[in-house]
Design goal:
There is one protein chain. By secondary structure, the protein is an all-alpha fold. The chain folds into 2 domains: 157 residues, no CATH class; 102 residues, no CATH class. The protein starts with a helix and ends with a helix. This is Ferric reductase like transmembrane component. Keywords: Membrane, Transmembrane, Transmembrane helix. It comes from Bythopirellula polymerisocia.
Length: 274
Amino acid sequence: MKSFASRRLRNSILTIVVAVAVGWYAWWSKARLGRPEFATGYLLLSCLVFLALYNTRKKLPVLAWTTSAGWLQTHIYVGLLTAVVFGIHVACKIPSGYLEIALAALYLLTFASGLVGLYWTRSIPPKLARVSEEFLYERIPALRSQVQARAEQTVLETVRATGSDTLGEFFAQRVQGYLEKPRGLDYWFRPTSKVRKRLLAELTEVSRYLSEPERNASETLFALIRRRDDLDFHAAMQWRLKAWLFLHIGLTYPLLLVACLHGWLAHLFYGGAL
């Protein structure tokens, strides 16, 4: 824990030093009637290219020059540094022109998605670890089907054995739809255990009127309702991470293309040659 804290402190100090150096260079260059926009622009573009390489590194680990954790830490701090470089590059002014506005919008969206991803990748895994079991995202639909089939089999066998339909009616009216239907869109954006708690409370109330075999079956239903809720929670949280990554990477490459076009046009209008 101490080594991680020391690395974070070291990386933070290094990022601040580089940011201050870039700011000082921009001020020094302008004071001598220079054009720091080109240097800061190239630095920003280099940082963006480096950040984009992180996804390539994950796909081609044989090319790695450091650990995945090291790449990720560098990715985070370089990403934070780009905010300072971007602000210095545009001189903290609102961009004008369609290309500049598009470039600024792409950068801000990519940076904002990076911050959201940083928060989610830090907060979601501990939440998933508190769930009773870990589930692979691709297996969740099959596991849901297993839960539904087992619940239906348990209730059906109990009704046949006892001749009472109390538990069967409760299952058909309150639980079966919960196990068959997918969660609503609101749950995917804000998963809660509200439905689970309500069903368990209702099942607890019904258990007072059940026979001993039906109570045993209701205990199985208790476990299956909890398992279904755990599966839904995992699905929602893992989907959130997958959707974020798709969006973040999807914004990165258009940002690089527009940034390269912007740099090329800047040289043309300035009269330089590439």
